[in-house]
Design goal:
Mean pLDDT: 94
Structural class: mainly beta
Strand order of the largest sheet: 2-1-3-4
Number of domains: 1
Low-confidence stretches: none
Shape: globular
Number of helices: 1
Order of helices and strands: EEHEE
CATH superfamily: P-loop containing nucleotide triphosphate hydrolases
Oligomer: single chain
Number of strands: 4
Helix content: 10-25%
Radius of gyration: 12 Å
Distance between the termini: 24 Å
CATH topology: Rossmann fold
CATH architecture: 3-Layer(aba) Sandwich
Strand content: 25-35%
């Protein structure tokens, strides 16, 4: 069984640009979702935070109920498709 939970995720770059603000998402086992939106709304940044390629500025990420904010990308056992 797999699940993914984002709780109040924020991404703020050192330049001060805020890419993602207070985003919460709960994906249960076997659910399928698609991120859709205009350019610059935070879709890719959110996926990169889930994959561990971007640091999460605030908030929590859980994969299979395990806290993942500080887990290296290679240890997350996750993939994404654009």
């Amino acid at each position: 069984m797999s699940s993914l939970y984002l709780q109040n995720i924020y991404k703020k770059y050192p330049s001060g640009v805020v890419a993602v603000t207070d985003f919460t998402l709960d994906i249960k086992d076997k659910e399928f979702i698609v991120f859709v939106g205009p350019s610059g709304c935070g879709k890719s940044t959110t996926l990169r935070m889930i994959a561990g390629l971007e640091d999460i500025s605030e908030g929590e990420l859980f994969i299979d109920e395990k806290y993942m904010n500080n887990v290296q990308p290679k240890d997350r056992d996750i993939a994404m498709v654009f």
